From TrEMBL:
<dbReference type="Pfam" id="PF12706">
    <property type="entry name" value="Lactamase_B_2"/>
</dbReference>
<dbReference type="InterPro" id="IPR050114">
    <property type="entry name" value="UPF0173_UPF0282_UlaG_hydrolase"/>
</dbReference>
<protein>
    <submittedName>
        <fullName>MBL fold metallo-hydrolase</fullName>
    </submittedName>
</protein>
<dbReference type="InterPro" id="IPR036866">
    <property type="entry name" value="RibonucZ/Hydroxyglut_hydro"/>
</dbReference>
<dbReference type="InterPro" id="IPR001279">
    <property type="entry name" value="Metallo-B-lactamas"/>
</dbReference>
<feature type="domain" description="Metallo-beta-lactamase">
    <location>
        <begin position="105"/>
        <end position="277"/>
    </location>
</feature>
Length: 333
């Protein structure tokens, strides 16, 4: 009798736990508390360099002559597919995303697509983006294995070297070492061509990058994850940081502060724009909403950034979705 009671209690607890998890995953945090941080409506003509946040860690930089894209992730498979099935690029979603961003066609001005690491939500779509636009796929050996698996020709891919300046039009891009946020998906290298459909977990991290961009006297840093290599950015300067905060919320206060110090304070940034906070299991055609708990804690991440920004005089702004921004607006040269 006692065994039956114990088993019944366990089953009830599991059912309650499953119901609670399902409720949390379907009820993301609201954004009412960060309304004041939303990117302001442009009141003056934009500067030549326009930056667009396209969701997750996909960022488009365009000066009218040359464009660069981080990641290029548009497929956004849903939760069930990611956890229980196999993933692959959604060519139609990629085509529509590129059209919406204004970088379509093999003669587009997109010079390079650069995944910040090789997880599926960063590198999976990049070879198809390169194929459709004529851009160069540049990244780690793991990213190139993703490109090979998709059949991208070798002359359309470039193995990136750390600390090496690459020139694209008026842009100078330099990649510095980074690490993924400490999670169960951190680490690993893709050693063979990865031909989808495959499990999402087959897209191993490879080399993570902090991407530094210099353009006409302005400097910008983009991170795709809330991890870091201590000392990797010493001597680097950036006016603005597009700061990847994915999975940062549940991390310890010590980790958050170390990430800020190594990534924001070290480069002397005067503005921080959080990215990689949105739910990448919903289509990009829907309004962006934060990643649901318990997978992240958007409120904790933003509360930390607001406190640090206020204490150190760093402007914190949430990016406008898909809208051109002058990310240096209001900052002195």
């Amino acid at each position: 009798m006692r065994i039956k009671w114990i088993l019944g209690t366990l089953v009830a607890c599991l059912a309650i736990g499953a119901s609670t998890l399902a409720w949390l995953l379907s009820h993301p945090p609201g954004m009412e508390g960060v309304k004041s941080l939303r990117w302001p409506t442009a009141s003056a003509p934009l500067a030549p360099l326009k930056v667009r946040f396209l969701g997750v860690a996909t960022v488009l930089l365009d000066d009218g002559e040359t464009a660069l894209l981080t990641d290029g992730f548009f497929s956004r498979p849903d939760k069930l597919t990611v956890f229980l099935r196999k993933v692959e690029p959604d060519v139609q979603a990629i085509t529509e995303g590129l059209q919406r961003a204004g970088i379509t066609g093999s003669a587009s001005r997109l010079a390079a697509v650069i995944p910040l690491h090789s997880h599926y939500d960063h590198a999976m779509d990049a070879p198809e983006v390169a194929r459709q636009t004529g851009a160069l796929l540049m990244g780690s050996g793991s990213t190139l294995m993703v490109g090979q698996g998709w059949g991208l020709p070798p002359d359309r891919m470039k193995l990136a070297q750390l600390h090496t300046p690459y020139r694209f039009g008026r842009f100078t891009v330099t990649l510095y070492p980074a690490l993924h946020t400490p999670t169960g998906f951190t680490g690993g290298v893709i050693e063979q061509p990865l031909k989808p459909p495959v499990r999402a977990t087959d897209y191993l991290e490879g080399q993570s990058y902090a991407m530094h961009i210099a353009h006409e006297g302005r400097t910008l840093l983009i991170t795709g994850t809330a991890g870091f290599v201590p000392g990797a950015l010493q001597g680097v300067r950036a006016d603005v940081v597009l700061l990847g905060i994915g999975a940062m919320g549940p991390r310890s206060p010590e980790h958050k502060l170390a990430y800020w110090n190594e990534t924001v304070r070290t480069v002397g940034a005067r503005r921080v724009i959080p990215i990689h906070w949105d739910d990448f299991w919903i289509p990009s055609t829907q309004p962006m909403q934060p990643m649901p708990r318990p997978l992240d804690d958007f409120e904790a991440s933003m509360a930390f950034l607001e406190r640090q920004g206020a204490a150190e005089g760093v402007n914190i702004r949430l990016p406008a979705a898909w809208t051109p921004m002058d990310v240096f607006d209001g900052l002195p040269r």
